[in-house]
Amino acid sequence: MARLAPGSDYLVLLPALLCWGIGIGMLTPAVVAAAVGAVEPARAGLASGVNNTARQAGGAIGIAVFGAVAGSAVDHDHFVRGLNLTALGTAALFVVAAVATLALVPAAERV
After folding, report:
1. In this structure, are residues 80 and 5 in contact, taking their beta carbons and an 8 Å threshold?
2. Residue 47 and residue 32 in contact, taking contact as beta carbons nearer than 8 Å
């Protein structure tokens, strides 16, 4: 997404969207397992419901905000530049999180 420009072809988005889809697919089961495993078995349904509601609401709000910003009268060059910076910043945060996880989680607890 850091190479995105206002006139970019859809193929420029393909690698980022593939990584995004694969990442979400790998992350979602782990998040659900952590949410359900953090409570006693009698409250597992409640934990699963709260997790699913938060995920759905967050996605809906994110799509609404993105659509409002993308559809506004803002200059497309500035909007795309913001997307580029956001993508690079997010990638940097993911690298920091991965390094911190490898450094802080004992090897015996890694899955």
Report:
1. yes
2. no
Contact 6, 77 (CB under 8 A): yes
Residue 23: inside a domain: yes
pLDDT, one tens digit per residue, over 44-102 is 999 999 999 999 999 999 888 888 877 776 777 877 887 788 888 888 998 999 999 88
**Identity of the amino acid at 99:** V
Structure tokens at 82: 């913001």
pLDDT confidence tier of residue 1, bands split at 50, 70 and 90: low
Buried b (16+ CB within 10 A) or exposed e, 43-79: eeeebeeebeeeeeeeeeeeeeeeeeeeeeeeeeeee
Domain count, the chain: 1
Does any domain span residue 40? Answer: yes
Range of the domain at 62: 10-109
Of 4-13, 39-48, 80-89, where does the model show the most confidence? 39-48
Kindly state whether residue 5 falls inside one of the protein's structural domains.
no
